[in-house]
């Protein structure tokens, strides 16, 4: 069990080691990956149903993609369950992919980010393979600064 936890932590942390940190604010940080190239803001949950979950906002300048919201669940999701991101009194349904989710479109990405900027917390919810609720709770303090740093890090 300890090896599995250590391996999971290593797999989550390894991509961050190869990146340049643009800054850290509360439980959020921004990174640049010049090889891809991409930049992203990433937040760690304050409370989680498992391990390894995160929320990120990514920027890929060569692909002309920006402000893309992505979530990684803290434990395996039931194939029959959806993923929702709840912030600022709004519920956003994400496009589920295995144990992660993406915002369905740019308009929703921007609405989620606007809600993050004006709220103090967000949660990501789904149902696990074991039938239990997955609830990953995040503070949004520092998120706006991390998102802005990531956007500036990949600005043309």
Provide tags for this entry.
disordered N terminus, ten-stranded antiparallel beta sheet, globular, 156 residues, alpha+beta
User: Per DSSP, what share of the residues sits in E-state strands of 2 or more residues?
Assistant: 35-45%
* Strand count: 10
Instruction: Estimate the global geometry from the Cα principal axes.
Output: globular
Structural class: alpha+beta
Number of domains as seen in the coordinates: 1
Description:
The chain is an alpha+beta fold. The chain has one domain. The protein has 3 helices and 10 strands; from the N terminus they run αββββββββαββα. It has a 10-stranded antiparallel beta sheet, with helices on one face. The longest helix has 16 residues. The chain is globular and about 45 Å long. The N and C termini lie far apart (45 Å). The N terminus is likely disordered.
